[in-house]
Amino acid sequence: MGAYENIIQGSIGNDGGRLDKALAEASGLSRERIKALMAEGRVSLAGKPVSQGSLKVAGGTAFAIDVPEAAAAEAVAQDIPLSVVFEDEYLIVVDKPAGLVVHPAAGNLDGTLVNALLHHCRGQLSGIGGVARPGIVHRIDKDTSGLLVVAKTDKAHEGLAAQFADHSIARAYRAVVSGRPIPLAGTVTGAIGRSSSNRKKMALVEDGRGKHAVTHYRTIESLKTASLVECRLETGRTHQVRVHMSSIGHSLVGDPVYGRTTPAIRPILQRLGFSRQALHAAELGFVHPVTGENVHLVSPLPDDMRTLIDELRH
Question: Do 36 and 129 form a contact (C-beta atoms < 8 A)?
Answer without folding.
Answer: yes
